[in-house]
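Posting this for the archive.
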Amino acid sequence: MSFNFFDIFWVFLALSSLQPIWQRRQIEYRRVQTLRAFEQQRNGRVILLIHRQESLSLLGIPLSRYITIEDSEQILRAIRLTPPDVPIDLILHTPGGLVLATEQIARALIRHPSKVTVFVPHYAMSGGTMLALAADEIIMDANAVLGPVDPQLGNFPAASILKVVEDKPIAEVDDQTLIMADLSRKAIAQVQRFVRTLLKDNIPQQKIAEENIEPIVEALTTGRVTHDYPITVEEATELGLPITVGLPRSIYNLMELYPQPQGGRPSVQYIPMPYGDRRPILPTPKGRPLEEPDQRT
């Protein structure tokens, strides 16, 4: 049997079309294996909620993902399938999302009788922070961040809408702004009530000291900072949240199996190997020595 150029071309084309499918199956298999190993290590149920910015295959339009009703349906099902005596580990990497979906997941987490642990390798903002508040323990990378949970009405923070009404004479405020202010008061009250419920959770044991609950509610829900303000490990610990610093290596391995889709040239590149003890010696600073940062725990 002889092959001509066109036969080879069609074989190459067929193999090229099958390669993405094979790669996708391989990475899915590695995800399941890594999840299974982590569950055996932790002796519990592991749930991932990872949101990356996706790209449409044809148009290349960036499409940001967030917590949706579909997410809540899947997570609620996973929680229902978990026996009461089995702990839950939730790995979070999300900018937030729908309030309804977030509250459903958070309520299911605080109702679970066994310990709930949230892992934050990079960030869990807004609704992601609310899910973290439902946990008995929040384990974070030293550089990971949480965020405020103050309500947003459209493109505007509820707290800022209220400030407009407070600062301007009532006669100079239009009806639409007054309606928005009324909704803002209700939204802030609702979020504060729900966050207070999460912080008072005492199953399997009380996780937040009683004297810290109201200061945490005040700090996270009243719009004292912008909605994208990063709450560091140090600040979260100072507030009284149950923070533990230091993620197991398996969490980072899992995150590597959920890469950000690349379009064109990568914006970050490095040689992926640890330096260990062979780190380059940093130059001695000239002039006055730099002050060491405040090491808060």
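Residues 148-229 form one domain. The chain has two domains: 1-55+63-145+233-260, 148-229.
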